[in-house]
Amino acid sequence: FEVFSSANEMFSLIVLNFPSLWAVSLCYSKLICKEGHSGPTYESMQNVFERQSFRPAVNLSNPTITNISFTLYAVLGVNEKTQILTTFLWLRLYWQHEFLVWDPDECDGVTRISLPVKQLWSPDIIVYEFVDDDVSQACPYVYVNHTGHIRWDRMLRLVSSCNLEIFSFPFDVQNCTFTFGSYMVSPALTFKEMSGNSKRYLEASGEWELVDILGETSILQFGIDEWDIITFWVVIKRRPVLYVVNLLIPSSFLMLIDILSFYLPPHSVDRASFKMTLILGYTVFLLIMNDLLPSTANGTPIIGIYFSVCLALMVISLLETVIITNVLHHSSMKYQEVPNWVRVVILKHIANLICYRWPEDAQLHPSVPQKDKHENTNTALPELQQICQYLGDLHAHLNSLQKENELQEQWCHVGYVLDYLLFRIYLLLISCYALVIICMWCVWISHS
C-alpha cells in the first residue's frame, strides 16, 4: 500500500479504482495450490493478507455475518460498591472469508489451516457494558476451513457494569447484561447450549453459581446507521455457605447465650456485667466481619439489618436486667412495703398469666411484730430487770431482721414475676424476628 497524505486522497483513489479492485477480488476467489505443497501457496495467501483492511466479500452488497458464542468460565469478582462485575469468557467468533477458499483435492487433502489473525480482516465486536481495558491474553491465530469458514477462539476478561441487588445477601441472585454489538452479528449457538456449556465449567469455580443464560437479538439504530446487537442476560447465584458459617451461625450463638443468661438468678449474680461483656463481644464480632458485608449507596442488605436488630435486642435485654436489679435491691433496701396495686397487678394477675408459682411457705404480707409477753414487774430485782431489757432489745432486733427478710422476699417475688414476663416478651420478639428473616430468605431462595 502507498502512504496517502490525507484520508480524502485515499478515499478518492479507492473510488476511482473500484472496478479494478472488484476485478482483483474476483481473481482471488480461490487460492492456488501446487504439487508437493500441503495447502495453498504462500503467494496466493499473501495477496489476501495485503487486502486485510477490506471486508472479504466478492460481492460487496452481500453482508458478512458474524456468529458469536461464549462460555462463562469464571466469575472473578463482584464489587457491590462500584457495581462492577468481572468475568472471564471463552469467546468464539465465526465468519465467512470468501477469498480464503481452496479445493482440498488440489491441495494434498488439506481442509483446515491456521493463520495469523492480524493478517486477516476481523469483525469489530464491542461490548457496551465494558468499563475497563481488556488485559486478557490474546489468541494470535484463527482456524480457516477450505470453504472460507473462519473460527476465532479468544479469551476475554470482561469488566462490565451491572446493577447489583444486594438486599437479599447472602442469598442474592444477580442478573447482569452483556451486549455484543457489530454491523452484522448473530448467535452461533442457542442460548440453552451456551448456558449448558458454561455450567459445566463454572460448577466448582468460586463463590458464584450460574443459574441460566438468556438472550435476544435486536437492531440498534444511531441516525442512519444500524447495529445488530445480541443481548445476553447472565443470571448468577451466590453460594451462601461461607457467610452462613462465618456470619449467621456465630451471631445466632451469641443471641442464644444472651437468651440463656436470663436463667441466671438476678438477686445473687451480677447479670448486668455478663450482658455488657456479651454486647462488647458482639460489637467486636461486627467490626471483624464488616469486610464480608457488601456496601452500596443504594441500600443496605437485610443481613446488616439483622445484625443491627440483634444488637438492639441485646441492649433491650440489658435494660431489662437493670430494671429487675433496681426492683430487687433498690426498693428493698429502703424497707418499703409492697404497694397494694403491685400485689394485685403483678403478684396476682400477671403471675397467673405467666404461670408463675412461688413456694407455699412464702408470705405475701409482712408479719406484725408480737408484743413481748413477759412483763417486767416492778418487784423484780435490778439484775433481772437488766436481763429483761437485753432480751427485749434482742427480740426487737430479731423482729427487724425478720421484717427485712420478709420485705426482700416479697420484692424478690415481684422482681421474678417481672423478669419472667419480660423474658417471655423478649423470646416472642426474637422468635417473630427470626421467623420473618427465615421466611424472607426462603422466598428468595425458592424464586431463585
UniProtKB/TrEMBL annotation:
Membrane topology listed for this record: Multi-pass membrane protein
Domain Neurotransmitter-gated ion-channel ligand-binding: 52-239
SUPFAM superfamilies reported for this sequence: Neurotransmitter-gated ion-channel transmembrane pore, Nicotinic receptor ligand binding domain-like
Classification via CDD domains: LGIC_TM_5-HT3 (cd19063)
Annotated localization: Postsynaptic cell membrane
Ribosomal protein recorded as keyword: no
Keyword Ion transport belongs to the record: yes
Classification via PROSITE patterns: NEUROTR_ION_CHANNEL
Domain Neurotransmitter-gated ion-channel transmembrane intervals: 247-375
Key words, A-Z: Cell membrane, Disulfide bond, Glycoprotein, Ion channel, Ion transport, Ligand-gated ion channel, Membrane, Postsynaptic cell membrane, Receptor, Signal, Synapse, Transmembrane, Transmembrane helix, Transport
Top-level taxon of origin: Eukaryota
Reactions listed under catalytic activity: Na(+)(in) = Na(+)(out); Ca(2+)(in) = Ca(2+)(out); K(+)(in) = K(+)(out)
GO CC list: postsynaptic membrane
GO molecular function: extracellular ligand-gated monoatomic ion channel activity; transmembrane signaling receptor activity
Transmembrane feature ranges: 241-264, 276-293, 305-328, 425-445
Alphabetical list of InterPro entries matching this protein: 5HT3_rcpt (IPR008132), LGIC_TM_5-HT3 (IPR049944), Neur_chan_lig-bd (IPR006202), Neur_chan_lig-bd_sf (IPR036734), Neur_channel (IPR006201), Neuro-gated_channel_TM_sf (IPR036719), Neuro_actylchol_rec (IPR038050), Neurotrans-gated_channel_TM (IPR006029)
Functional summary from the UniProt entry: Forms serotonin (5-hydroxytryptamine/5-HT3)-activated cation-selective channel complexes, which when activated cause fast, depolarizing responses in neurons.
Protein family: Belongs to the ligand-gated ion channel (TC 1.A.9) family.
Name assigned to this protein: 5-hydroxytryptamine receptor 3A-like
Organism from which the protein derives: Mastacembelus armatus (zig-zag eel)
